[in-house]
Amino acid sequence: MSVYFYGCVTLDGYLAxxxxxxxxxxxxxxxxxTGYEDFYARMDVTVMGxxxxxxxxxxxxxxxxxxxxxxxxxxHRPLSQKGFSAVSGDPAAFVRGLGGGKNIWIxxxxxxxxxxxxxxxxxxxxxxxxxxxxxxGIPLFTQKAALRRFRLEEVRKYGQFAELAYGRGRAPx
Length: 173
Prior knowledge:
Blueprint: E1 2-10, E2 14-16, H1 23-26, H2 36-41, E3 45-49, H3 50-57, E4 70-74, E5 85-87, H4 91-97, E6 103-106, H5 110-118, E7 124-130, E8 138-139, E9 151-158, E10 161-167
Parallel strand pairs: 1-6, 1-7, 3-4, 3-6, 4-5
Antiparallel strand pairs: 2-8, 7-10, 9-10
């Protein structure tokens, strides 16, 4: 099992605006300008929080967002969207229960990422940086104070995005 975070932040480290909006991201570029398709083709499972899922629900075809993966949403509300399963509880325990041999993508925010970092379960961080300063918003990293080391594996440029790929040295992509 390998656990990945793949996402985009602003230069000042925010995943989303204070209101959880992503307009800054959509106005900067498109996923076609990134390595998203190659990354997604290697994933087996997506795990996300309710707020991230709410952004996906706004798409014209939410079920088509992640058609080739098992998709789990941490929420206390039932989901009616085809292709997504509601789960609750501890994200680290849930991810451990998914079993070995799978590539698991943590989509979106820090509510799911922080407990996995706290449990030392994140193997890869692939962070795209957009040339935007928000000044305030939802930060990417909110884990507990503990030293976690990653090593830089690759730097790529996609349009206006710089992509930094870090790994822990456990399992290659």
